[in-house]
Design goal:
Elements: H1 3-70, H2 75-162
Helix pairs in contact: 1-2
């Protein structure tokens, strides 16, 4: 391969990096920020769920203590209340877990959708870049061929004149 072809190849790579390097880095930065936002939101939801569960447990424990102290003679009613509260806690816990799972699925879908869109945009930009670079390469080759022909013509003219 001649030095000119190697230099043209390096030049095209440099042009490609200059044209699209910033955009690729920006897109990568956006993806990273979105992933961080999703992770932060998921952490916040998890924290809220833990706090709600602790509050619920505190409320249930308080109710149970009051019921036991106030109605120790009615074990049957107390056992029913305990079972009811336990079931309520389990239902709320299940409900909270289901909400967290739905939120996590939703966030995952949002990430996947955003990622798909970004990949598609990158693909389109890459195709456009390739076409633009091909056109540039074609024009440069034509100009090089025209310059080579002109150089040969001047050389022939110089030979003819000098004799």
């Amino acid at each position: 391969m001649s030095e000119t072809s190697v230099e043209n190849g390096n030049g095209i790579e440099q042009v490609r990096d200059l044209l699209f390097g910033t955009q690729v880095r920006q897109i990568e930065d956006r993806i990273q920020r979105q992933e961080q936002m999703v992770a932060q939101r998921l952490e916040a939801i998890s924290s809220e769920l833990k706090n709600a569960t602790k509050a619920l447990e505190g409320m249930i424990n308080g109710r149970l203590s009051d019921i036991i102290a106030a109605q120790s003679e009615t074990n049957g009613a107390l056992e029913a209340s305990i079972a009811s509260l336990k079931e309520e806690m389990e239902n709320r816990s299940r409900s909270s877990i289901e909400q967290l799972n739905r939120a996590e699925r939703s966030l995952s879908e949002m990430i996947a959708d955003s990622n798909g869109k970004l990949v598609e945009a990158l693909s389109q930009q890459s195709e456009q870049s390739s076409r633009a670079l091909s056109e540039l390469e074609s024009r440069l080759r034509k100009e090089l061929a025209a310059k080579s022909a002109l150089t040969k013509l001047f050389g022939d003219l110089s030979t003819a004149i000098n004799g």
